[in-house]
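Hey, can you fold this one?
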Amino acid sequence: MLNSIITIRHAGSLKALFASGAFNRTIGWSMLIVGMGLMALYEPWIFSMTDTWSLEMNEVLQLRHWQGVLLTMGLLQLAVGYILTKEVFAVNFRVVASVLTGLGSIAYAGGHVLIYLLAFGESFVFIGSLFNLIAFALASQMEIGGSEAKQIRILLYVLSMGMALDLVSGLVMLYPDIFQPEWLGGQSGVRLRMLRLARVAAIALPVLTLLFFDLTYRLKIKTRLAKWGNWCLIGGAVLMPLTLAVSCFTLISLKYFLVVPATAVCLGTWVGCHIVFRYGSLLERFGWIVIALSLLMGMLMGMYAFDGPLPVPSGIDNYQDLTRRLMRMGHATAIMYGMLALFFAERRLLRTTWSRINQCGMWIFCGGVVAAISLLTAFAIFELAVWCLAIGPAMICVGMILIELGGPSRIPATDNAQL
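Sure. Predicted structure:
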């Protein structure tokens, strides 16, 4: 991905820490490790609850939401770190963007914790989303260099939209009487469910598209199929959160157009599978196939998830039914696991060393992914002990820690003179 690289400790300045994206990658991996550790602790407790009233309690919803925020912000920081390693922005702006998004993600995730403890926790959520919005909005207006400038600018617009939706959510927390009218419904209502998915999709799909960019750029794949897959993912990244957000705030019947971006994303992902099975590493194959299968499952779930067009299958009529919760969890976490595998594959290229500990961590991570998905499925079918649901996330957390014990990251040598 990079023509010439040197280790960050040789860059000789604090400025290099930010301009290289190392600051954001450190935040991202830290959030993801903590998030997976929390998942191992609380997932058995969450799925031991079977009555709807307990699941609708504000404390339970806030805990689940905070854990999701932590993982989403972690992925966002990895994406920022990736963009900053590409020579598409001037060094000084990269420093500003790194600080703004890093502090914004910390404030946004931390604010969801402080909501439990302090009255002004909502203010941190608002400030964090504002910092992120400013950073991505400014980035989308900056001069972008490189062959991928057009695609990166489009994705920056999508990320800006996602940060704007987070800002709206922050305003809802601060001023619920003004910004959450009754017609939006409750937390389990269709409109707010679409809004939550729009916020996640506005981050996850651009990240997935960036990973596809990295794959084709690094392997020098310029075929018509690769370009077609590229634009399928871009189209899905733009239309999915946009359709969800517009449906939430206007005509809910617009949700039927979701089949278009959902199909585009699935097709683009299967193109990624085709490429890695011909040219990619074993870890990349693992990551892309996990994502592709999960997106296909999500597309099928989407046919009934928002009350149509298909009826909800018998036995999972209630949004909080155990099987339905397990399906949602399996779909969302599998996509995240696949993305993490791809980031690990990319990170391996940026390592000066890859020790036996790192290799062991990678195998534990992959085993944890298989265990997590398999045990969720088995728990939905058989009467397993609820603590079994902690095995997969715990293995993934341990694997990530062992992988991160390796050598230092690297930054472009061409930037060293500027720093």
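Residues 190-218 form the longest helix (29 residues). Let me know if you want another pass with a different chain boundary.
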